[in-house]
Every structure is written in structure tokens, then in C-alpha cells.
Amino acid sequence: MTAPQDSFVSVERHDNGVATVRINRPEARNALSMAIRRDLADMFNRLSVDAGVRAIILTGGETCFVAGADIREFAGAGPVEMYLRHTEVLWDAIGRCPKPVIAAVNGFALGGGCELAMHCDIIVAGESAKFAQPEIKLGLMPGAGGTQRLVRAVGKFQAMRIALTGCTVRASEALAMGLASEVVPDDRTIARAQELAAEIAALPPIAVAQIKEVILAGADLPLDSALMLERKAFQLLFDSKDQKEGAVAFFEKRSPVFEGK
């Protein structure tokens, strides 16, 4: 699977079931144009149904994740034009991907870049990473999850501070407040994301998918309803061959081989 030659989005597939999606527009600090959003959505839609892919890494490279949206594309736009773009459909391709998605963040993750990282399931941040929702400084507000995903990640008071001031959050602070999963040296960010992705890819895919689905769906449900959802998914897994393989391997004191069945 390859991207078109004129695309700013590429994918590298590894033998261990991991795919690395990279945004490569360094001259614009990987700013999210509509073309990049469409390419990302197309890429994630294809990876979502690719049985050979069990985990996905999303990165902008070694120096910059995504420094925001491409302001030139919306500075003079009207509300109907913005509505007709239906960018929420493009974002959903990432947010609703059934495979675990790990963001490897070095450098800036601002505005749409911060929102893009929050669409992922795990965020590995390099020590240089800087997160922000600076839309307020343009007379705007976040429009792709920068209020709703942010408050769910860090709570009301930190989300209010970040969104209302447009302040920059460094990697260590992001880790402390729950906006990052891990912080590593900059030259280890992508390597660490690859290690996590490989670890997850080696686990039973159906169980991995159910864990992701239940965590995301249950987060906005009343506790009793969320617990019921968890029980049903737990019970469902007893019909999988991977569950039986895991149990047999445990008793035989060997490493299990999971096939996603």
C-alpha cells in the first residue's frame, strides 16, 4: 500500500503488523491542508480494513508533528463554506479507526495538530514536544475536538486554561496532566512508538479491538451501562480461537500465537 506520489502522506508497512503513517510537509511545518486531511482519511480507511495491520503509528517526523491547520485555506471562508467541507468525516476516519493508533509527537502539536494527536489512542511525546490550542488568538476556537477531547483528557480546569489562553504545554506538563502517555528523548520518540505498536500487534487482535471499542464507547455512558458493555465484550471473547490459544499456551508455559480468530 502506497500513497500517491504527489501526496504529503506516506505509509510504511512492517512485517510485524505495524504500519507507520507519516505526514511530510516540512516547509509548512506539516500544516493540515484539506488535501492532507483527505489523504489521511483515505489512508486510515484502508488501514482499518487491512487484516495485515494490527497497530498504526501516526507521526510528522523527527522535528515537527503538525503545527496546526493551513490558515491560508480558511482565513476568508464563510460559515456555509466551512460547513460544506464536512471535515468531521475526515477526522472520523482516524478517531473511529478500530486499530490502536499511536501518535509519535516531536516538536509542535498545535491547534489541529494537538487535535490530531488526541484522535489517537496513545501519545508518545519527545521531550521537545509542545502542545497548544491557540485558535483563540485568531478570534476562533478549536473545531475538531480541541474542547471536547481535551476536557475528557485533562479535566475542566486545565482544558479551560489551555483553550482560553492558547498557552503552550510542554511535554513534561502534558504527561503530568494526562495529555501524553509517555515522554522520551526526542531521538527515541518514533522508536518507542514502534516498540509499543509491535507489542500491541503481537496480542490477540479481537481482544485489542474490543478493549479500544469499550473504553471509547463506555467513557460517555453511565457507569452501570458501561460495565454492562464491558461484560458483554468480555463474554464475547470466549468464542474466539485466540482466547483458547492464550489459555492453552499459559498452561503449556509457551508463548501464544494469536491469529485474530
TrEMBL record:
It comes from the Bacteria. SUPFAM superfamilies: ClpP/crotonase. This is Enoyl-CoA hydratase. The keyword Translocase does not apply. The lineage of its organism: Bacteria, Pseudomonadati, Pseudomonadota, Alphaproteobacteria, Sphingomonadales. Belongs to the enoyl-CoA hydratase/isomerase family. GO terms for biological process: fatty acid beta-oxidation. The keyword Lyase applies. PROSITE patterns: ENOYL_COA_HYDRATASE (PS00166).
